[in-house]
Design a protein that fits this description.
YjbJ_sf; CsbD-like; CsbD
Length: about 60
């Protein structure tokens, strides 16, 4: 995973956490759910990138 991908995924995760927190603080369930979805999306992207990296390492030889 490139550094840019890592930064992008972390930004998505942190943005999602901020949305979730803001939604919880204001009672906005839709915003809270969007934040949770953003975090899940960032986590999934990170997992896919990790699998790609592992596959590259496996087939490197």
């Amino acid at each position: 995973m490139s550094l840019g991908d890592k930064i992008s995924n972390k930004a998505g995760e942190l943005g999602g956490k901020a949305k979730e927190t803001a939604g919880a603080a204001t009672g906005d369930e839709q915003l809270k759910a969007e934040g949770q979805a953003d975090q899940a999306k960032a986590g999934l992207k990170g997992a896919v990138e990790n699998v790609k990296d592992a596959a590259k390492d496996l087939f490197k030889n």
